[in-house]
Design brief:
The complex is a heterodimer of chains A (about 210) and B (about 270). By secondary structure, chain A is of the alpha+beta class. Chain A has two domains: about 10-45; about 50-195, Rieske [2Fe-2S] iron-sulphur domain (Rieske Iron-sulfur Protein). Chain A is about 15% helix and about 25% strand. Chain A is elongated and about 95 Å long. Chain B is mostly helical and about 270 residues long. Chain B contains ten helices and no strands. In chain B, helix 6 packs antiparallel against helix 9 and helix 7 packs antiparallel against helix 8. The chains are: A alpha+beta (about 210), B mainly alpha (about 270). Chains A and B meet through loops of A and helix 7 and helix 8 of B.
């Protein structure tokens, strides 16, 4: 664009308006970008999970589940607690290869339909969700209702120094009980489900300690 | 005899020119008192010219045949104003503390604060009233065909307002922090999470982390009392401006008056 003088490539008016708009944009970005980063930061924040003792091995049997109150989030009282259903591994029904972390089977009480708490009914050997009627069998596999995958599990280990069973990070499983990083309820992991609902940035890597 | 002009005074010594509001009529104190309101309004109008805007806003031509269904938009706005006013005063007592403080502060509002139960109930039931009214208003606009040219942008802003109102309902439901609101929020966030590809990250954003945590409640509270109400107020302003600019559409059963000359003109 021709200017006021010979050889000028940009007019003063154009230059001044560009400077004004540019500095206004920089001023707006100076508060907007940090605020936006502050708001979406938790998505990338890694949740630290500590191993928590849930009792001596004598608390658990193969035939039924023991109810253990666990802490999901520290420091927020009752709202941070949840329940794990724990039993000793039974090789006749738990056909996955035994590792250091699955000598006790710990199921999350979180329903895989929309996250309500399931209750174990010993007489029926079923987990039943009060919200929308999800039903799971003894191993946590879906046998009825709307849940999209089996109940989540926790890694467990034996701490020889204290003599207690400890409960570690939560993980999700698909219908073949293959291990995935923890997903939210209502996100299926069969077939293309594991790609439609990808691993999040703030969850744990598996297996623990590796 | 010709009169000489007065010698020019220096600028500093000249008397200031009279303002239009100053006149020479001497008024008695009762008359001044009677004129006080007009004087104040005149003083403001002389400096702002607001009276033209108020005339433009309020003294509009409306088509023949409008009825009570046309008041649903105003009714929705008054429901929003009710929510805004009661919400501000509830915020004076509410404590978004996830460790028992939130529930206790609501219990305190209901049990101890003077008129607390009334104001809380106005906010709680007013929320449902606003949702009902906004859907009735949308139905009126849809079935009367009032969304058509040139009012499409008014409709689009209205849809955004509807979504924001539902966001208000979702975020406000958690705040009493009893069992019902806690589990309803768990379910609602997990429904958000079913959106493919971005759902899991959207859930993390809403909860401020992978689990319902210490800042989830305060995050919902900030969205509920500051972010979304500001957006709603701004969009209501744009919505109303368009209603005034474009005028109100006639009900579909009112036909345009047919002028015989116009009919002949073969347009």
């Amino acid at each position: 664009m021709p200017g006021s003088f010979e050889g000028e490539t940009v007019t003063r008016r154009r230059f001044m308006s560009a400077v004004t708009h540019g500095s206004g944009g920089i001023a707006a970005a100076a508060f907007a970008l940090p605020a936006l980063g502050f708001a979406i930061g938790p998505i990338f924040q890694h949740l630290k999970w500590s191993w928590q003792p849930i009792g001596p091995p004598s608390d658990f049997t193969e035939g039924t589940y023991a109810i253990k109150v666990i802490t999901i989030v520290q420091g927020i009282g009752e709202a941070g607690n949840s329940i794990a259903y724990v039993r000793t591994r039974d090789p006749s029904i738990d056909t996955q290869p035994e590792t250091e972390y699955n000598k006790w089977v710990a199921l999350s009480s979180r329903c895989m339909h929309l996250g309500c708490p399931v209750r174990y009914v010993a007489a029926a050997e079923r987990f039943i969700c009060p919200c929308h009627g999800g039903v799971y069998d003894f191993t946590g596999q879906v046998v009825g209702g709307p849940p999209v995958r089996p109940l989540d599990r926790f890694f467990t280990r034996y701490n020889a120094s204290t003599g207690l069973v400890e409960l570690g990070p939560r993980y999700s499983v698909n219908d073949q009980l293959e291990i995935f990083s923890p997903r939210d309820p209502a996100q299926p992991l069969n077939g293309i489900g594991q790609y439609m609902y990808p691993r999040r940035f703030d969850t744990n890597s598996f297996p623990p300690g590796v | 005899m010709p009169k000489f002009p007065a010698p020019p005074l220096p600028k500093a010594l000249q008397p200031p020119p009279k303002r239009p509001s100053e006149n020479d009529v001497q008024m008695t104190p009762p008359e001044i008192a009677a004129e006080a309101g007009i004087t104040v309004v005149d003083w403001i109008d002389e400096r702002t010219s607001l009276s033209g805007g108020i005339r433009w806003t309020l003294f509009r031509k409306v088509p023949r045949g409008i009825n009570w269904a046309y008041t649903l938009g105003s009714a929705t706005m008054f429901a929003f104003l009710n929510q805004a006013v009661t919400g501000v005063f509830l915020a004076m007592y509410y404590d978004p503390n996830v460790n028992g403080g939130a529930y206790e502060s609501i219990r305190n509002i209901n049990d101890n604060v003077f008129l607390g139960q009334t104001v809380h109930a106005m906010h709680k039931w007013g929320a449902s009233v606003m949702i009902i009214l906004i859907f009735l208003h949308m139905g009126r606009v849809f079935f009367f065909g009032a969304y058509k040219y040139p009012r499409e942008l008014t409709w689009i802003i209205g849809v955004v307002l509807l979504i924001l109102t539902l966001v208000m309902g979702f975020t406000g439901y958690l705040l009493p922090f009893d069992q019902q609101s806690y589990w309803a929020t768990i379910v609602g966030v997990n429904i958000n999470g079913t959106g493919p590809f971005i759902g899991p990250y959207l859930s993390d954003f809403l909860r401020a982390g992978p689990e319902f945590g210490a800042t989830t409640l305060s995050r919902f509270y900030a969205i509920h009392m500051m972010l979304v109400p500001g957006l709603i107020a701004a969009l209501i302003g744009a919505h109303l401006y368009l209603v005034m600019k474009l005028g109100i559409s006639a009900p579909p059963w009112i036909k345009a008056e047919e002028l015989p000359d116009l009919r002949k003109a073969d347009v």
